[in-house]
Amino acid sequence: MNDKPEKFIDENGLRLDGRQIDEIRPMTIKIGVLSRADGSCYLEWGNNKILAAVYGPRELHPRRLQKADSALIRYRYNMAAFSVEDRARPGPSRRSIEISKVSREAFEPVVMTHLYPSAVIDVFAEVLQADAGTRTAAINAASIALADAGIPMKGLVAACAVGKVDGKLVLDLNKPEDNYGEADLPIAITQDGEITLLQMDGDLTQEEFKEAIKLCKEGCYQILEMQKEALKTKFSDDADIDIPDD
Ligand code: CDP
Predict the structure, then answer these.
(1) Domain spans, the chain
(2) Within a 13 Å sphere around the CA of 47, how many CA atoms are in the beta-carbon half?
(3) To test the ligand 1 pocket, which listed residue (134, 136, 200, 216) has its Cβ within 8 A of the most ligand atoms?
(4) What is the CATH code of the structural domain delimited by 27-239?
């Protein structure tokens, strides 16, 4: 069934879900939701619902996989069978293996793995409900779960996608924009603005590409602020102290 909307942006410049073209979907963050994990985060972003759990650093078994000078990061992105309209087939797929790989690489530049030789840091990102942008939502949740686990990092990582509909760049694609848009470009950045993940589907001109990265970074910076705020609240509540702003 083709349910492609006739127009994605109305005469007032608003998208199908009422957002401005440079507006991200509402995000809520809960930290420390799993008692057995070393760090965890439940994140909702629009209709996406993600649970991230971090275990470690812990000794890596089998030992032959250990790295003598650093910890290994393992990242598993998984869609629950009930997370999508058609049941998602349980177990790894080409898509989930690819997303797990690029997401792990998004964290490798910031996690201070050299502090934990022979260890492993396991990151699990479970998509409970999917509605476009799950890889970026999962990275945002995983970043917080890593911080919650006390893993030393040079900074947080935030991710967002930008795309193109009706010939215009739009930030943080919703489902129809993702399904029927002209381009989809997810990125992840560090706090310093270094890009650690960049993927792209569709077509953009060089000018549009540059503009898209700029727009997407703006989205990521907003997310970084929300991540920091959530962590500050969690840890000041836990310690019952006031943490001053930057
Ligand atoms: O989720 P993300 O945008 O990172 O990845 P995608 O491969 O572009 O998928 C876009 C959306 O399609 C997902 O967020 C899901 O809502 C949906 N999807 C699905 O319904 N069934 C799948 N097996 C994979 C994706």
Answers:
(1) 27-239
(2) 12
(3) 134
(4) 3.30.230.70
Distance 131 CA to ligand 1 centre (A): 7
Bridge-based pairing state of the strands 183-190 and 195-198? antiparallel
Task: State the number of CA atoms in the 13 A half-sphere of 103 facing the CB.
Answer: 30
Reported in sequence order, the residue ranges of the chain that DSSP labels E, i.e. its strands, are: 27-31, 39-45, 48-59, 72-79, 119-129, 157-165, 168-171, 183-190, 195-198, 201-202
Q: Which amino acid is at 41?
A: C
| SS3 of residue 106 by DSSP | helix
At 3-52, the pLDDT tens digits run 899 999 999 999 999 999 999 999 999 999 999 999 999 999 999 999 99
What ipTM is given for this predicted complex? 0.99
As a whole number of angstroms, the longest Cα–Cα distance in the chain is 61
Please check whether residue 77 is in contact with residue 127, taking contact to mean a CB–CB distance below 8 angstroms: yes
> Residue 224 is encoded by which pair of tokens?
């970084």
Residue 107's nearest CA partner among 65, 77, 62 is 77
